[in-house]
Design a protein that fits this description.
The protein is 49% helix and 11% strand. With 167 residues, the protein is mostly helical. Helix 3 packs across helix 4, helix 3 (71-77) runs antiparallel to helix 6 (157-166) and helix 4 packs parallel to helix 5 (123-149). The termini are far apart.
């Protein structure tokens, strides 16, 4: 539907030289959206703020689907253990990549609302996604706190990711 214009692909691939994940971002300088209704903008901004706060993500566009991943990073992120099936999949995957030390970059894109058909995003899916993200975020916070209290010292996951990239 050309919501993500192919002309942005070279910038995304160019960013992969020193990144594990590149996001075509609507929310960095130079990025944006066109022809979105106010409610869709508010839902998108809300989900992004929530995911950044809950998971400690630095990326400005956690819900954008125009992305590129290194295959070893996807292996480290544990795709087989993903809980999300709907739109929260994007935030969960970014969160999992972040947990294993991914170098995440963003490049600006202009997202254009689809010209044909209708979006599958609705309030029901948005609330279901927020529920899944909240559960994942709380689980992460509890897990980190337990690990800290028990003074666990594990090999940093970042090193595992680097070893897989080198292989």
């Amino acid at each position: 539907d050309f919501s993500h214009h192919p002309s942005y692909i070279p910038a995304i691939l160019g960013g992969m030289k020193n990144k594990d994940v590149m996001i075509g971002s609507r929310y960095v300088p130079g990025g944006g959206v066109r022809n979105w209704p106010f409610t869709r903008k508010m839902m998108s901004h809300g989900v992004n703020l929530f995911a950044r706060g809950m998971f400690g993500l630095r990326a400005k566009d956690t819900s954008g689907a125009f992305r590129c991943y290194r295959v070893p990073m996807l292996a480290c992120a544990g795709l087989k253990r993903m809980e999300s099936l709907g739109y929260s999949f994007l935030e969960e995957l970014l969160h999992r990549c972040n947990l294993v030390g991914a170098r995440i970059g963003e490049t600006p894109i202009i997202f254009e609302n689809r010209r044909n058909g209708t979006s599958k995003v609705n309030f029901v899916e948005a609330f279901r996604s927020l529920g899944i993200l909240m559960r994942l975020g709380l689980h992460t916070l509890i897990t980190k706190r337990v690990a800290y209290k028990k003074n666990w010292h594990l090999e940093p996951i970042r090193n595992v990711a680097e070893k897989r990239r080198a292989a």
